[in-house]
Amino acid sequence: MKRAAIWGVLILAAALGVWTTRDAWRGYAVQDDRARQSREELQRMKDAERKARMDRIAIGTEVGREEEARRQGWRRPGEIPAPELPR
How far apart are the first and last CA of the chain? Predict the structure, then answer.
């Protein structure tokens, strides 16, 4: 009987501990989600900055400027565009 009472008290204490810390675990889940979103946003910003840096480097050369102009639709006067190859 004494052993059953001890087990009952232990189970009750464990249940009470879980019950009282449930808000802390919810807070942890919210913070974990916010941290994940921040990491994803930081990665997107790094990728955008890296692309912008590469674009600046490419535009700094004559070939890069011409490629950018052609990407935007510029053609030399009288130039006949070559047909695009299928991808």
Answer: 80
Name the packing angle between helices 22-59 and 2-20 (round to 10°). Answer: 40
7-62: per-residue pLDDT in tens? 888 888 888 888 888 888 888 899 999 999 999 999 999 999 998 888 877 777 88
Q: Which of 67, 45, 64 is nearest to 56 (CA)?
A: 64
Q: How far is CA 5 from CA 1, 10, 17, 59, in A?
A: 6, 9, 18, 79
pTM of the entire structure?
A: 0.50
CA-closest candidate to residue 54, choices 63, 62, 44, 64 = 64
